[in-house]
Sequence to fold (235 residues):
Amino acid sequence: MSKPLIIAIDGPAASGKSTLARRLARALDYLYFDTGVLYRAVTWAALQRGLSPADEAAMTRLAETLDMDVRPPSQDDGRSNDVWVDGQDVTWAVRSPEVDAWVSVVAAHPGVRRALVDVQRRIGQAGRVVMVGRDIGTVILPDADLKIYLDASAEERARRRYLEAKARGQDADYDEILAALRERDRLDASRAVAPLRPAADAVVLQTDDLDADQVFAKVMALIQARNSAPLRRLP
Ligand code: CDP
Fold:
């Protein structure tokens, strides 16, 4: 098998998907695309407009019509991309606790998912991409060359989010983070359409006892093993 052109990374919140994907994309000179920002952008816009995230018809209409864009990063403040909605840079706004609390409700609506499939497939099928989400290996890009499912216990994932928030100087409560994360996992894994689960042909990595370097090394080893030609590393 030659070098994988489409790499799908799925898994629950804070399992290390974006860290891994960013590093893989840099090493391979591929595009990194985090599909969660699409669901987050719709959720942010709904809250701004005072719409109910539970209203499927309203959320579907919003997902179909929203003026949103994901662009290369304009600032060096830790962002991987800019996220723009309605002409505003909402890159950090879509990561707020309010959006965290509602995004899985919005993402469970079949109409919302349908509205966002085409844009994800177009980006993915162009190749040379590391695409991250919950249903990339199962629904969006079932023919991906390499599928990784990252997992870790809820306690370990909450610990990671807690430490990230502290490192940013934010107030954080471990128990609140753990409860919110469990609720989001429950909604993501139990929805009728495109629930969170590993694809049958995904490589599942349990990361409780692995740091980011070890996860990256394991996946690079998988890529090398499937690749006849050596990988080119960017300087
Ligand atoms: O970064 P984190 O793992 O916390 O979340 P995210 O990847 O930004 O995704 C936020 C939410 O969007 C998830 O909890 C899912 O409800 C939804 N999502 C989805 O349903 N399908 C995707 N492909 C990506 C995200």
Observations:
- The pocket of cytidine-5'-diphosphate is lined by residues 13-14, 35-36, 39-40, 103-104, 107, 133-135, 184, 188 (CB under 6 Å).
